[in-house]
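re: ur question from the group chat, yeah i did fold both. here u go
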Amino acid sequence: MSATLSPVRAAHDADALTINEAAEVSGWSPRMLRRLREEPLLGAAVDIWLDQTPEPPAEVDRSDWLDWEQEKHKRLLESTDF
């Protein structure tokens, strides 16, 4: 199944998260996010989230954002017992 995007929608989507990017950021699987989009209420919320342009937290400079995210995830993993 392929979808055709309007030029306006395609241009807007250039700043939006892809399913795979959203999965990486959230820790959810791409498959789970696709299933959530199929549920009417959850789908609307997921669509809004995916359409947003990612922004670093206010206290983090954009040039340091990637390092900050990696450190955040490292700390989370270190604090988790597997």
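okk and heres the other one u asked abt
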Amino acid sequence: MRDLVPAIVRFYLDGFRNMRLGRLLWTIILFKLIIFFGVIKPFFMPDYLESRFADNTAAKAAYVLERLTEHMPPAPAPDATRPAAPP
């Protein structure tokens, strides 16, 4: 069991060392993630909750609950012809 973890680590390191196309693809993936989270996210996805409700977590929760339930259709009325389901 002690030798299992180093063997797994060695297996993956050798695999990554011997990759050619995979290394290029991983580089492209990391580049795209850096662009998305480092450049695009701060400009196009502002943190509305933090800007509106600084440190008030109860107000944040109430706002989110209100926005989630705002357009929900009302619950159907119980049908009088069918018996109620057991609890």
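fwiw on the second one: The longest helix spans residues 21-44. DSSP finds four helices and no strands in the chain. idk if thats what u expected
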